Each structure stands twice: as structure tokens, then as C-alpha cells.
Amino acid sequence: MKAIMRPLLVSFLVLLLLTGIVYPLTVWGLARTVFPWQASGSLLTRDGRVIGSAVIGQHFSDPRHFWSRPSATGPFPYNAAASGGSNQGPLNPALIDAVKARIDALRAADPGNAAPIPVDLVTASGSGVDPHISVAAARYQARRVARSRGLTPDRVYRLIDEATEEQMFGFLGEPRVNVLRLNLGLEALRP
Amino acid sequence: MTSQAWILLAAFLGVLFLLAWPLGRWLAAVGEGRLPRWLAPLVRLEQGFYRLAGVDAGTGMGWKQYALALIAFNVLGVVVVYALQRWQAWLPLNPQGFAAVSPDSAFNTAVSFVTNTNWQGYVGEATMSYLTQMAALAVQNFLSAATGIAVAYALIRGIAARSSTAIGNFWVDVTRITAYVLLPLSIVFALFLVSQGAIQNFDAYQDAATVEPLTYQQAKVGADGQAAQDAQGNAVLEDVTRKAQTIPMGPVASQEAIKMLGTNGGGYFNANSAFPYENPTPLADFVQMLSIFLIPAGLVFAFGRMVGDPRQGFAVLAAMTILFVAAVLIVTPLEQAGNPQLAALGVDQAVSATQSGGNMEGKETRFGIAASTLFATITTAASCGAVNGMHDSFTPLGGAVPLVMIQLGEVVFGGVGAGLYGMLIFAILAVFIAGLMIGRTPEYLGKKIEAYEMKMTSVAILVTPILVLAGTAIAVLADAGRAGIANPGAHGFSEILYAFSSAANNNGSAFAGLSANTPFYNTLLAIVMWFGRFAVIVPVLAIAGSLAAKKRLTPGAGTLPTHGPLFVVLLIGVVVLVGLLNYVPALALGPIVEHLTLAAGR
């Protein structure tokens, strides 16, 4: 046992410094040189103030905005500092009740809309800060947003089309819309 | 399955094999110490390091010496990770001022990261300082991966050796694997992740002024510091309005890269690879999936090379690939079909050009169904445990697929090193069973498999099921165990079964509804993780030592060839049979009951 103390302590210390200090600092140095915006969080600013991140979702409940997906983070939705999903199983009555309440809220904000609701709009994401909704979920909300902003539906549909991110190479990921960017685009529109 | 899911699976396997083949050559070269001349400056540095450490790099170790060095190295790892968590409040790089981690949680996390499990009872972004993340947790991501690969090297050398007493030098193995394999791959991968949107900085958490203020209700705290109650004894709620979103920061990309490449799986953030700063885009996700299987697949190719017969590697790889593809083909349609309970509410779960549809609870929009189920299968087939969607919210049988992949013993590609040595143990069991059928002394690659090897094989194979089933039984019987359950009914049992399967097989993913950050679970799961790792590694090293000492026989007319389709089928049969015999009764109480309940519409 005594014979291995020196190799043990020296190897551990050297490998700890190499992988725990030198390595992350190297990546940090390279990342901030080559991809400074991404490395510091893809932050979006308006009038000089940070208003969010391009890759982190925000909560929206105003009918004049597109709504993001439900979020199960606590104690409030879209808490990026305590991420996570609901972890409710498919049979959990709490899940069914939550989905019912979300359906009611969407219908109450848009009484005339009888279309079936896209599933991502009534289920909580895994991260709790999903920045996207499906294109279907955006289109489902288009008439409500248009009406409450006094815009033509066509104008809003066009905005969705412009904001749509397609699948990469036709099979990677899903067609989707970044809700924060879509809403910023909406606010920049002149009616 | 949708055509997109088929293309994704095919593209994944194609790119994987394309990348793993050259990596396998490199892994074989590193394992055999054949380093190319252009590495000479680094090799000189390495020699200096050995002099400093008092390591005689030219001398091999016997298996007992190797095992002792390995255990000592990992025990020291537990001590250091524990200490850094307990002292983080007084150490630098803690801009959020996080307090010391509780003793039971720190112990659990230390064992978890050292054993390559990366089970996480804590919420990373609300618990761990930047220093703890990078110098305690990420360091073990490297060192536990290096440990696993070292054991695989040792076993391969035992098989390839001719009448030798040595199976390699642990210090040399760990150093070379870290310096020549894990670090270079991690730097490239980390930079790629940053290009996609993963973060790498040491800033304090940022406050962003959100577009809309957010109002929510929380329990009011009275003047006495207790939750206020009204006359009826109900908690009083008050409205709170927030105008800012706290955006976490930190050295994420560097940790993320080795988390995937080392099949560790411990996320920087609680939501793991579902969190956009870890896994921002579908392309990042695709490369993350590749990076989980990259080294395990490369090691299988390296195995073929190092034993002097590449076909032996292909046979093992074929068995792994068949089991893996079968699992993907089961889970993907189940999740794509969605939740019948939501269909009854009129929710649109059909796949179309504008949505992925399916069971989206706990999944991310950018990944949809296909990339979530593929990721879930990969992360559980390998003992990675990273998740890009919440397995707890999968459909009953859909969630059973990751569970079963773990229970097969993490041999379908498996953890780095661990998957290969685990599968080779099953290969020894397979030739033994074949030997019994034809009445010949079994051989594997020219090495006679005798009583000693079979005893050690039995220990290595039986340790994990005993830990899983005994641990589950204890937790189900104990009040403290049942208290952690989040979902009612059979699903609650599945949460506990999943936790112990994951811990004993060093996977680390969870049916995460289970509240496991309690002294009961932290302690019990830490014990299970420790023995699930080292009570397998020690017998494997014993087999390596015993095989190394044997002569290598030339195959005769009666030798069972271990590279053809017959052997592949036999190997798959043994893996599946052992898994079924161990776990079907337990599975019947969890996912199967739940599926029947859901199908009956109750």
C-alpha cells in the first residue's frame, strides 16, 4: 500500500489540474474568442438591456403575444435557475387535470377557435424553459394574436413563416418557432 | 415509425461506424502503447510525469496490484469530490454564494460521479459552484471514464496475452487514456457545442428583463417565519410579480463534452440535455448522441485489433447493434402514438408537417419524438444517463424500454470500457453454455474457460441484479422509500425500480419524479452504485489475470467459432435470457400493470 501512495497522489493531483482547471480554461479561452456571443449565453438586448436569451424560453400569458409551452418549473414557470419537467406519468390524474386547465385557458382566450389544440401547447417541456413551439402551435394562436393586435391574420401567418426554423437536412429536429423572437418580431410590427 | 425516424436511425448508425472505425485504430494504438512519432514531445512530457510520480511505465502489474491501484485511485476520488462539495462555500468561483452541500447528498454525488453513474439527487444550477462543477464533478467524468477504459484494456490484454503475469500498468493506462483520447476529443466537442449555443463562462447569473411580467401565487409567510394560515387552517397564498428571469451561467460546454464522451451523463443543469444551454440545437443533439456511442463502439473495433482478429470485434458489435435497433423500433412508435388520455380530451397528437405530435409531455419541441426516443435508447443502452426528455413521462411501455436497456447490464454498447468488458463477460458465459451443450471445455479466443473464470463471471453477472432487486425491495418496504414516490399507482413502483436499476448498473438516468435527495436514498443508492461498479470490476480483473496466465490455443475442428452469425445469435440470446430471468417479475409489477391500466382506459 505504501508503494502506491506516491503514484496515487501525484497522478491524481496532476490529472485533476489538467482536466479540472487547464481544460475548462482552455475551452473558455477558445470559446470567448471564436464564439463570444454563444459562450456568454446568446443574450438578446433591447434598448441596451438584456431581455432574455435566444435559446431560453419565457412565459407569456397576454393574448396579444404568442404563448410558450407550459412549464413545470417551480415555484413559477420558466424558472431557468431550477429547470426540469413535470415528471408526471401518462396516467397521473394531476397531468390530466393540468392539461384540461390549459385547454380551458386557451379556449377562453380565443372563444371562436374550435380547432384541435396541438399537443405541445398543452404539455410541459422537459427543461421547463423550452424556447420553441411547433409551427402548428403557432398557427393555432395566429387568429387570436391578430385579432387582439388589430392585424390581419395573413400578416401574422407570414410572420410565423418567416420565423419558422426548418428541420436540418430534412430529418434533424422538428419544424419550430422561437416564441421570444416571434413575439419581439410582433412588437416591432407597425399595424 | 415515421420515415424521419428511420432516416435518423440510419444516419446515426452510419456516421457512428464511420467515426468509430478510425477511433478504434487509435484506441488500440494507445492501449498497446504504440504512439506515433509526431506525439514525441507529449510522450517526453509523459515520461517526466512518470518520474515525478515514481511510476515505472515499463513494468506491468498483476491483476491484484492493478485492482488495488484502481480502487485506491477511485477512493481518493470520492474523498476529493466530497471535500470540494462540503467546502465550496469557502472556495473561489462561487458567484451565487451556494452553501456547502449536505453530507448525505455530497456523499451520494461523490460516489455517483466516481462510479461513472452520475445519478443526481441535487439541482445543479441551484446547488453546485463553478469550482465544484469543473474541478470535482467534471474531473471525475474524465477519471471514471479512464478507469472504465483501463479495465477494458486490461481484459483485452488478458485475452491476447500468452502465459503472462501482467495485465498492464494502471497509472500508465489512466494517464494515456485521459491525455491522448478523452482530452483532445473533449476540446473539439466542447467548442462545437459552444458554436451551437452551449455556454462557457464564469459570469454570475444574469437577470433579464422579460418581455411580460409574470405573476404567480406562493404561500404567504407570516410574521413568525412560518407559513401563514387562515381561519380554516388553509395556507394563505399571495400574488408575487416578477419582471426578470434569472439566467444561469457557468463553464457548461467543457463539462458537457466529457459528460457525453465519457458516458457519464451528469448534467450541469437539472434538466440535463433537455436544457438549451447544454443541448441547444437538433444538430448538437445528433452529435451528442454520436458522442455517447463513439468510444464504446471504437473500443469494440480496438478489441478486434488487439486480439489480432477484427472479426471478433464485428461479432460483438453486431450483437450490440441488433439489440439496440430492436429497442429503438419498440420505443419510437409507442411514444409517437401519444397518450390516449389526452386524445380523449381532443388534443391533436398526430404527426404532420407542422408538428411532431405524440407524447410530448417532458419532451422538447426542437427534438420532437424521433430524436427524444433515439436519445433515450442510446443513453440507457450505453450507461450514460444523460436525458433530453423526461423518461418518467414516457408512456408505460415506452418508458419500460430505457428501463430494460439498463437492466440488460449496460452491455449494448454500454459505458466506456464497461460496455465492452460487460459484453465480453457475457461472451464467456455464452461459450460456456455452448460448451455444456456439446460437451467440450469451452474456449474464448484460444483461452480455456475453466471453473475459476466461471465463478468470477457468475459474480460479475449476478451482482447487479441482486443489488437492484434487494434495493428495490428495501425501498418499497421502508416508509422513507415510499415517501419519495411522485406518481400514484404502478408508476410509483416503476420509479423506485428504475432508480435502483440505474444506480446498480451505473447509468444515472431516472424516473426523476422520485424525490431521492433524502438521507435514505442518498445512502442506499450510493452503496448500490459503489458495489455495482467495483464488485463487477474486481472479478473482471481477476478473469483478466487468470486468462493472461494461460496459453493461447490454436482453434481446432471442434472449437466454436466466435465471429459468425451463430455466435452473434447465441450472445444475444444469453444477454436477453439473463435479463428476462432476473427482471420480468419486477417489470410485471411496474410498467406492464400500468400499460394494461392505460389500455383499459382507467
Number of helices of chain A: 6
What structural category arises from helix and sheet content of chain B? mainly alpha
- Helix count from the secondary structure assignment of chain B: 18
Task: Indicate the percent of residues in helices of chain B.
Answer: 55-70%
Task: Note the beta-strand portion of chain A.
Answer: 5-15%
- Strand order, largest beta sheet of chain B: 1-2
**Oligomeric state as shown:** heterodimer
Mean pLDDT of chain A: 95
Uncertain ranges of chain B: none
Report Rg of chain A.
22 Å
Largest chain-chain contact?
A-B, 107 and 133 residues
How much of the residues of chain B is beta strand, in percent?
Answer: 5-15%
Our measurement of the CA-to-CA distance between the termini of chain A, rounded to an integer number of angstroms, reads 79 Å
Order of helices and strands of chain B: HHHHHHEEHHHHEHHHEEHHHHH
Task: Record the strand order, biggest sheet of chain A.
Answer: 4-6-5
Q: Write down the secondary-structure element order of chain A.
A: HHEEHEEHHEEH
Structure characteristics:
heterodimer, A: 191 residues, mainly alpha, 2 domains, 6 helices, B: 602 residues, two-stranded antiparallel sheet, 18 helices, 5 strands, 60% helix
Give a summary of the structure in a few sentences.
The complex is a heterodimer of chains A (191) and B (602). Chain A is mostly helical and 191 residues long.
How would you describe this protein?
The complex is a heterodimer of chains A (about 190) and B (about 600). By secondary structure, chain A is mainly alpha-helical. Chain A is built from 6 helices and 6 strands. With about 600 residues, chain B is mainly alpha-helical. Among the domains of chain B are: about 205-245, no CATH class; about 415-600, no CATH class. Chain B has helices at about 5-30, 40-55, 65-85, 105-115, 130-160, 170-195, 250-260, 280-305, 310-335, 340-345, 370-380, 395-405, 420-440, 450-475, 480, 490-505, 520-550, 565-600; strands at about 205-220, 235-245, 345-350, 445, 445-450. Chain B has a two-stranded antiparallel sheet with strand order 1-2. In chain B, helix 8 runs antiparallel to helix 9. The interface between A and B is large, with 107 and 133 residues. Strand 3 (about 115-120) of chain A pairs parallel with strand 3 of chain B, so a sheet runs across the interface.
